[in-house]
Amino acid sequence: MEQNPKMAQVTTISLHRLVSEFAGFGADALQKSRNEYDTLRYRVFASTWNVGGVAPQDDLDLEDWLDTKACNCYDIYVLGFQEMVPLNARNVLGPKNSSISSRWNQLIGDALNHTGRRREEEEGARAHHEQKQFRCVTSKQMVGVFLSVWVRSGLRRHVRHLGVSCVGAGVLGRLGNKGAVSLRFLLHGTSFCFVCCHLASGSKDGDVLLRNVDAADILSRTRFRPRRTVVPDEELPTQILDHDRVVLLGDLNYRISMDDAQARLLVSANKWSTLLEKDELLLELGKGRRFEGWSEGLVTFSPTYKYHRNSDKFYWWIDSGGTGVRRRQKQQRAPAWCDRVLWRGKGLKQIRYERCGGYRLSDHRPVRAVFEAVCEVPRAVGSFLEGLYA
Hints:
- The protein has 390 residues and is an alpha+beta fold.
- It has helices at residues 11-21, 89-93, 99-112, 123-131, 207-221, 260-268, 272-276, 280-287, 379-389, and strands spanning 37-50, 76-82, 134-142, 145-152, 159-168, 179-187, 190-198, 245-251, 317-319, 326-328, 339-344, 348-355, 367-378.
- It is built from nine helices and 13 strands.
- The protein has a six-stranded mixed β-sheet. Strands 5-6-7-8-11 form a five-stranded mixed β-sheet, with helices on one face. A two-stranded antiparallel sheet has the order 9-10.
């Protein structure tokens, strides 16, 4: 786990910190029917990783990424991938290749449940161990976008009304090389929605508007079909923004809006705080345009893109012939914070936000966040469940 660097406070980041700190639990968020309802708190681990079309090796260890040493602290895992497969014409237009997503799910399950480790022998210990196991409630792939959600086995019975929606926003504004996979469910009586996105790429002037259009398109076009089994008093939200708690994560592809030469100097000096003043996503959040009502934790980690694979060197510069003389790549891609986690909803409080630098499979680095999520349940039920999960 990387150490967060100490950054000088600048105007944009100070404002961002202020928004982040006050965007958790609102004063009036949990006051409803206090005499009738209890609040249960769950830990949600949410992470995004653009894996660059690289299939994982069978022995890839995901335990550090998933923080399995602290696994007992988490109740729900939300894992979003982009470029699960190479984004070529065959994968975009042809039949879905689900073998890669199945391999990732296998590796996730092995890491979360410590498959292969010594099992407890005593019956009581085994029962406790099984209670702590994680189950995949659902996973969905759209070309290269893949969303996989896991919950504790003991919590699975309280997850109801699962729904999945896919929105393509790529070629012709419809194909799935870009877009989002969204999942929603009710946990007790609280609605959650998780959105895994891959927005338009590019660092030219005007490309930020394409990302904004993709985000707006995903939010407006995503629909969850109503279920006939729902009782009249339990209406389910059909759009993303109608849910109580929403987490949006992915390769949002927002770049640094700055002169190339100036950006190069700042990157060489690791002046991340100054670069973040021109971060496109922070500027969009500050303007309240496409992301009005959304929040992001304070970004204190190094850029997540673009690296040489299996290296910590940025793709922007390479050594020429071992001479130590640096030359510019023909394809310039200044480092940026492309991979992000946003949220909205008064019952969410972010308690961690960081980059996972130890995984060099791709030209991106995974980013993870941890939330405390509140669910309201009838008082008698809440007391029983608190005893059950204590």
